[in-house]
Structure formats: structure tokens, C-alpha cells
Amino acid sequence: MRRREFIAGLGSAATWSVMARAQQHLVRVGFLTGLAQNPYSEARLSAFQQTLAERGWVVGRNLRIDYRFAGGDRDLLRKHAAELVGSQPDVIMAVGSGAVAALKQSSRTVPIVFAQVIDPVGGGLVESLAQPGGNATGFLLYEYGLAGKWLELLKQVAPRVTRVAVLRDPDQFAGVAQFGAIQAVAPSVRLELTPIDVRDAPTTERSVTAFARGANGGLVVLTSYATLTYLGAIVSLAAQLRLPAVYSDRDFVAGGGLLSYGPDIIDQYRRAADYIDRILKGAKPADLPVQAPTKYELVINLKTARTMGLDFSTDMLSIANEVIE
User: Fold this and answer.
1) Domain that holds residue 177
2) Residues 87 and 200 in one domain
3) Exposed end of the chain (fewer CB within 10 Å): N or C?
């Protein structure tokens, strides 16, 4: 009996050793966003995991991904950030400047790769684009120069517009800075701007409704946790008030908005996965430059245009990356 017990013990030890070695090779990646999980995020997460798999990191085999979604709750975002850092991941992907800031409050050493961040230098997240320094690097959502394009597109599709409400997140540095960039372009297209801070749905509805009482109004909706959290309410309000609106994120148009022009977000997730692969293989975030978008997409919702009595030119339709019927 003792001999059999001894042999069984050896077998258990060998099994434990194999499992321990497998566990040692299980890479842990955290994923943090201040947004809620929704149908629009599925394609992005799929592209993220697919790109990691193409690099040899397969969920369930040698990779574990811990996902956290804060749903627009800033306190929950900070809590998730602390939990992820406490789980001792090899690297964390952060979506949005709020997620990066929350993670950096919890750790200055855990590698962070970010996507959809507008101004990481101005926000104090990196030292410079070329040499990020510290533990974070990643990909810009877009550059401030894109502001002129939104105004031009709005004027093209709705030539009568002379007044534009700009919906922004006042709690983010980039929200205020983006409005400044749009202000600089507005005189050249003869548009009068009105900033509207998005804090909650009722306040935003009252502000936009008051703006719409004037004639020839339109909207430009900037991407932020706040505007994406109230995506459905903003799109419905624009339709109800018959305000032509240009968005910087495709999700608004998929949800019924008029048109959007901005970076291909799925491409950003793929590029972020590539950076994560490089970090897992020894690269340091401080040595990987922050990169600007390389792919942009124009998305048009024809159904919404018809409802509002607007027409898109043949030229605009021909260059659109996606037309929703």
C-alpha cells in the first residue's frame, strides 16, 4: 500500500508540475474601457482577439483576457482599473483617455497599450508621441485637424446650416481642446458655433432643444465617454428636432445618425493587438511611438437623410466607405 501510495504521489506531483508549467506560460492581458459592452463592440473585440491569435496568442491555450466595461461610470472605471492592475497582468489594453488615466493612477509599471485617445500628450498620459516614456503607448483616435472636415461635410449635406451646436465632454481635456480647433475653422465656412456640455441625458436634451429653436441649426458630435454613453438619446433627439448631424464615430450612424467621418476603429484594435504582441515579446511601451490613424471611413445613413429631407451628392456617395440603406 505504501509503495502504491508513493507511486500515486509521484503521478500527482508530475501532473501538478505539468499544470504549473502550463500556468506559467498563460499570458494575462487586461482590457479596460469606460464604455458599456454593446453590439458595436463585438466586431472590434473579435478583430482584437483574431490579431493576437495570428501572432500566436490564443485564448484558452496560452492567453487569458480579462475584460472590464464601466458603462460610463467613472467610479466603476477606477475600480476596474485597480482590480486589473491587482491581477498582475502582463499588459493591459485601455480604450479612451479616461481608462488610461485610471490605470496610471494604479500603476506606473504595468505596460499599457491604448486606443481611441485624442490627445495623450495634452492629457499628460505620455511625454511625447515619438518617445512616450513611462508605461503607456498606443494609437490616437484622431488629430485636431479633423475638425475642419466635420464642418465641411455638414455644410455639404445641409447647405442652409449657419449655426452649429458642438456636443462635447467637458470633463475631458480633449473635449475642450477639440472645440478650440473647431472654432478656428468655423469662420472659413461661415458657421456660428455653440458648445454644449454633455453631462447627462436630460440636461443635454434641454440644451439641444433650446438651440434648435433658432433657425438653420446643425450638430457636430464629438467622440467621448459621455456622448457614446448617450448615443441613442443623442441620435433620437437629432431626428426629432430635424437637426442635420455629423459624428466622429461610425456607431452613431449605425444607430440611426446621419453621417460620420473618422478613423477605422477596428483597424486601431488590430494595431493595438500588434503592439501588445511586441510588448509580450520584450518591447517596452516607452520605446514604441504613439501612432496616428492610417485608415479613415465616411459612413452615410440614406434612410435618415430621406427622413430629414436631405440629399447626398453622387460624388459623396461614391467616396463613402459604407452606405446604410
Assistant:
1) 144-263+297-324
2) no
3) N
Domain shared by 11 and 92, yes or no: yes
Answer for the pair 217, 163: CB distance below 8 angstroms, yes or no: yes
Give mean pLDDT, residues 89-111: 96
Average pLDDT of the chain, as a whole number: 90
- Would you report the helix, strand and coil content of the chain in percent, each value rounded to 5? 45, 20, 30
| Burial of 109 (C-beta count, 10 Å sphere; 0-12/13-18/19+) | exposed
In this prediction, residues 229-252 reach a mean pLDDT of 94
Residues 305, 196 share a domain:
yes
* 24 and 95 housed in the same domain: yes
> Over the stretch 139-160, which tens digit does the pLDDT of each residue have?
999 888 888 899 999 999 999 9
> Are both 156 and 206 inside the same structural domain?
yes
User: Do 171 and 255 share a domain, yes or no?
Assistant: yes
CA distance 155 to 297: 18
* Same domain, residue pair 205 and 68: no
pLDDT digits (tens, 9 = 90+) for 26-80: 999 999 999 888 888 899 999 999 999 999 999 999 999 999 999 989 999 999 9
Predicted TM-score (pTM) of this structure: 0.86
Is 272 found in the same domain as 224?
Answer: no
